[in-house]
Amino acid sequence: MKTDTICGLNAVTAAFARRPEAMLRLFYLPAQRIAAGGFCASLAAAKKPYRMVEAEELAKVAGTPHHGGIVAIAKPLVPAILDPDNPPRGKLLLVLDGIGNPHNLGAIARSAAFFGVPALLIGEGIGHAMPSDAALRTAEGGLEHLALWRTRDLPRALKAMEPHYRTVGASLDPSAMKLGELPRDRPVALVLGNEETGLSAPVAAACRRQVRIAGAGRIQSLNVAQAAAVLLHTLSG
User: Residue 136's closest CA among 161, 111, 102?
Assistant: First the structure.
C-alpha cells in the first residue's frame, strides 16, 4: 500500500489534527519524546505502532536527513476528483496548471493555508506535481488545511466555474492587468502556471482575465511560490 511519509513537527501535528484515522505509524528522536506524547497516545488507542529511534534509523525511515526529528507514516493524501458543475465555493480558490516541482507545490500550499485559502485545485498531467512526501514536508502542514481537488480537464473546469468565480490567470505579459486593478466584486479563482512556461495556452484562453505583479523590472519574474504569496496576500485581504 502506498503511504505518505510526513516529516517535521508542524506537518505531523497538522496531519494528526486533520486526518487522525489515516495515521499508521510514528517514529521520533529522543529529543521529540514530549512533543510526540499526544500522537503516541492516539496511536496506542487505535492499536497502531510508534517507536523512539536514533537519528540514523529515522533518516532511513524518512528517506532524508531533513526530517525534523519526527516522522509519521500515513495513508496517502489524495485530492478528490472535481465535479466541474459543482466546484468548491469560497471567496478565493487557488488553481495550479502544470506546477512540476513538489517543493513549489508545498510552498504554495503553505502560503495558501497561511492566507486562509480554503481549497486548491490541481490540474493533472504528466510532470504535474501532486501531494508527495517532498510536498508535504515543504508545506509544513499547509496541504492538510486545504480541501484538495484535481481535474484532467482544467480548461473545462475553469469555464464551468464562471457562474461562481472570476477566473484570473497570473501572467508575465506586460499587457496583463496590474494586480491592484483587478475588480474585487466577485470570488476569484486564481490560476498559477508552470514554473518555466507559465499558463498553458488552453488554460490561459479559459481565464476571463489575466493579471501581473508589477515589479521594478530588473529581473523578469518571481519564483512561482513567491508569486503565489504576493498574489494571495493581495487577494485575501
Answer: 102
